[in-house]
Amino acid sequence: MQSHTEIYAGLMSGTSLDGVDAALVAIAPDSAPQLLATHAEPMPRSLHQQLLTLCHADTVSFAQLAAAEQAFCHLQARAVRTLLENRGLAADGVMAVGSHGQTIEHAPGGHHGGPAYTLQLDNPSLLAELTGCRVVADFRRRDLAAGGQAAPLAPAFHQALFHDAKEDRVILNLGGFANITWLARDGHATQGFDTGPANVLLDAWCQHHDRGSHDENGRWAASGNVDPVLLAHLLDEPFFHQPPPRSTGRELFHLAWLKQHLSGAEHPADVQATLAQLTANSVASGIRQLCGERATTLIIGGGGAHNADLCRRLGDALPQSTLRTADAWGWPADWIEAGAFAWLAYRRLNHLPGNLPEVTGAAGERVLGGVYAP
Fold first, then answer.
1. Domains, in order of start, for the chain
2. Which of 66, 299, 361, 366 has the most other CB atoms within 10 Å of its CB?
3. Residue 326 belongs to what H/E stretch?
4. E strands of 198-295, at which residues?
């Protein structure tokens, strides 16, 4: 195994479909990973629409998949090249690029009795050609093959980055979906799972009412009132009552799912407030499921960390928790997920497991990902 610091890049494009996040990370065996540089490559509107269509299509042609994958790969390559140029690094200055790809559908339980699967659009061979970098990709399917959910994968990185023997910590990622990781100070095994939607429904409802791509700082939600009847109906969704391991995505929570719960008489701002409360309540329920009423430091990452209204609701729902953003540990909230895939690439090249069976439900630890030479 390596005994010195090496540099890796990580790429992440989440369910918000707003761009590719690229993070440059310094990693050494006996210290926490260090964030060196970042770059966000915005997603063109045409590609956003292509990918969104694929996520919700009943039938898809191979030509559609290939076209979207190639466009997405070129977007990734621009993100990598810009990241390295801004840092003054050549392609051989990084050990590898860890690529998550773009999730199109995630079905760890299968559909209608079919096999379990998870589909991320990615072309690591082309990415290696376009960037001149070694690429590590296809992280999820090895865990799935071992009987796991293939998600969430970030908890292993959270453990490496944030564990502290002096306090209980919960890491909360508020991306399109919310997932939590419990890092107990007393040696209890790290645990985590997806709690449900975070920004995906909030963004979709904003876009449906032509209020922009997202609810800036949660102002629209803050202007409305929670509809308790609607909230109760939304929380009746069976996913919220499944024991872990569990993970979810756009295949379950989307605009049509929300609309089927609406009468049509609701005020749009009240629906937005109710969606924010849905996220806060489902996150709080998940945290209590993991660690009861223990006092914890709640470290928030992801785009939802910038939503003041949502963070206020979380604070109200979790009075035993002290809320902080990941910035205090040198990791701005937007960059933890991309950093995780840089770290997973490091784990793959060093033949180290990247999953946590207690989180995903896999039969055991597995080395994740395939390696593609430039």
1. 6-151+334-372 (3.30.420.40), 154-329 (3.30.420.40)
2. 299
3. none
4. none
